[in-house]
Amino acid sequence: MSNFMTSNMNKSLLFMVSLLDFMGFTIGATIFPEMILSSHSHLVPQHWDHSLRLLSIGLVLCLYPVGQFLSASIFGALSDAWGRKKVISITLFGTVISSLLTACSIQWGGIYLLLLSRFVLGLFAGNVSVAQAAMVDMSTEKTRAANLSLIQLTLGLAWVFGAPLGSVLSNSQLVSWFDGSTPFFFLTLALCIVTFLFVFSFEETHHIKKKLERLHPFRGVTLTIQAYQTSSTMLPFLIWTLFIGGWALFLQFLPSFLILAKSYTTNSVGPLLALMGGTFAFTQIFISRAVFKRVKAQKVLLLALFLPPLAVLMMAFSHSFIFFHMGALLFPFAMGFVLPAFLAFLSHLGNLNEHGLRIGQAQSIQSLMTIFVTLVGGKLLGWWTLSTCMVGAVAMGLASVLFLMHYLMKISKIRKE
After folding, report:
1. Do 273 and 255 contact (CB within 8 A), yes or no?
2. What is the DSSP letter of 295?
3. 186 and 165 in contact (C-beta within 8 Å)?
């Protein structure tokens, strides 16, 4: 097989691995709230009151990113030592088992088994950081951001495909034997197919192996903290933390904001989210990849970082249908540039044998901030309906200013030398 065909096969497999990982989250985010809140649900004990059911929804959704936070840096470091193929292959088998456990927990009506399966599924979904590292392995300086955009594309597509797939396959009115477990049985089957193809078709991309340091259960936490401890990585990762925290706060509570502040209903929120997810995917497929092949990621960030907070403010304060939807389209359009460019920038901070570690750290920080905003966002929204938008926009805006300052200091230092 030629190098070109091998590269395309590898990229396709990494794309599918990441897409199915993210769909494991989006399917659950779509169907779990109604399943748990329904008085007819057998998933939770009937005597549980509304507040306890709400708490369980938060736990079910929160445990997935908790698992990713703990594992992403570890898998990234392991892949630097063992190679990308071995680590992704092992985690795919784990993903198959945990997805099957999720389906069985819904079939058997076991909320505690569901909580366990979601945590384990999140653990193995930390392999997204390894998929990103493999993309970096196959990239040059010019193609790094473009290749990473393929992985970020799956985040948007997971909402475009995962949300409706979860709704349809769990709807017993369409097919009598459909229920909440059906989407996860389908996901398990898809994961089995991709695992088989990956094991037998993927060619190793990482050949410069790094000596593996001793790992322990909380090594992911230690590796994440290390991102803030060296002078070359501290400020970039602080900027990433601020920006991704603001992004996650706005996005996690966007449906609640729309319902409370913009008089949306559950039925009307779905199409808007699908439109935003589709815009994100379209930007990645047809626009940003072409731009990244011509413009360095750092220069793209200088321009694009200021757009998401602007879009959020447009949505928050607009009273015009057109102006509001301009903001709703600008946000995913800008993120189609920002996410892959930022990851390319962070991966460049490490040596050739540390790409997996740097991207793993970025993934862990993203998961950690998702957990944090999930815990605090509800209280903020209860205080003021625009609070999640405002705090999110301020965090992203501050990150943009800090990145500009970091860039100017770097240019000044280079000129002095």
Report:
1. yes
2. S
3. yes
Give me the residue label for tokens 């205080």.
Answer: 383
Q: Which 8-state DSSP code applies to residue 126? A: G
- For residue 230, the 8-state DSSP code is S
Helix (H) or strand (E) holding 249: helix 231-252
- Report the sign of the C-alpha dihedral through residues 374, 133, 26, 42, in that order: negative
Separation of first and last alpha carbons in the chain: 46
Token reading at 283: 């930007």
Query: Using only C-alpha atoms, what is the Rg of the chain?
Result: 21
According to the model, what pLDDT value does residue 177 have?
Answer: 85
> What amino acid occupies position 378?
G
> Per the structure block, which two tokens stand in for 239?
């900027």
Identify whether the C-beta of residue 201 lies closer than 8 Å to the C-beta of residue 9.
yes
Contact (Cβ atoms closer than 8 angstroms) between residue 151 and residue 144? no
Burial of 228 (0-12, 13-18, 19+ CB in 10 A): middle
Output the pTM of the full model: 0.71
Find how far residue 398's CA is from the centre of its chain.
22
Ranges assigned E (strand) in 69-186: none
Residues 6+ apart with CB under 8 A from 401: none
pLDDT tens for 328-378 read 999 999 998 888 888 888 877 766 556 666 777 787 788 788 878 877 776
- Three-state secondary structure call for residue 15: helix
Distances (CA, A) of 375 to 57, 121, 370: 12, 20, 9
Torsion of CA 25, 29, 34, 36, to 10 degrees: 60
Alpha-carbon gap, residue 46 to 41, rounded angstroms: 8
CB environment 123-143: b (16+ within 10 A), e (fewer):
bbbbbbbbbbbbbbbbbeeeb
